[in-house]
UniProtKB/TrEMBL annotation:
It holds the Pfam family Oxidored_FMN. GO terms for biological process: fatty acid biosynthetic process; oxylipin biosynthetic process. Its cofactor is FMN. This is NADH:flavin oxidoreductase/NADH oxidase N-terminal domain-containing protein. InterPro entries: Aldolase_TIM (IPR013785), OxRdtase_FMN_N (IPR001155), Oye-like (IPR045247).
Length: 148
């Protein structure tokens, strides 16, 4: 919280965002993160971006981030394996203000257009994440095809 306070003093809390990961959190870590989120809200932090826990590569249907959403007064962003329909539902239900599409955006540089058209999506090549297994670290980040 000291870092958040220092940054907020310099630039204003309305310009500060925090991302937290609850992917494999224990009950203790979950409780700590909930405490942190409520303290971020008290400080006027602009957004809280949280990674949704998933099971077997799929998002849990339990809406486990709901307590964090309720504890945070600013913009709440959820991410973690969402597709278009699931993302629309999360925002439509008020579960999140925004949904981040990290992997989908990486593999589909024209993702909003593909969503708009209902076009097929490129598959992510996980083997190239973070430059792993590629002689050229740009492989997997800049070479996915656009939809024609």
């Amino acid at each position: 919280m000291e870092v958040v306070d220092a940054v907020a003093r310099e630039v204003g809390g309305h310009r500060v965002g925090v991302r937290l990961d609850q992917f494999d959190a224990t009950a203790e870590e979950h409780a700590l993160a909930l405490h942190v989120v409520s303290r971020l809200s008290d400080r006027g932090v602009l957004y809280c971006h949280m990674i949704e826990p998933r099971v077997d590569g799929r998002r849990r249907v339990s809406r486990r981030l709901l307590p964090f959403r309720e504890a945070f007064g600013g913009t709440f962003i959820a991410s973690g394996g969402y597709g278009r329909d699931e993302g629309d539902a999360a925002v439509g239900e008020g579960y999140a203000d925004l949904v981040a599409f990290g992997r989908l955006f990486l593999a589909n540089p024209d993702l909003p257009r593909r969503f708009e058209l209902g076009a097929p999506l490129n598959e992510c090549d996980v083997a190239t994440f973070y430059g792993a297994g590629a002689a050229d670290p740009a492989v997997g980040y800049t070479d996915y095809p656009f939809f024609d």
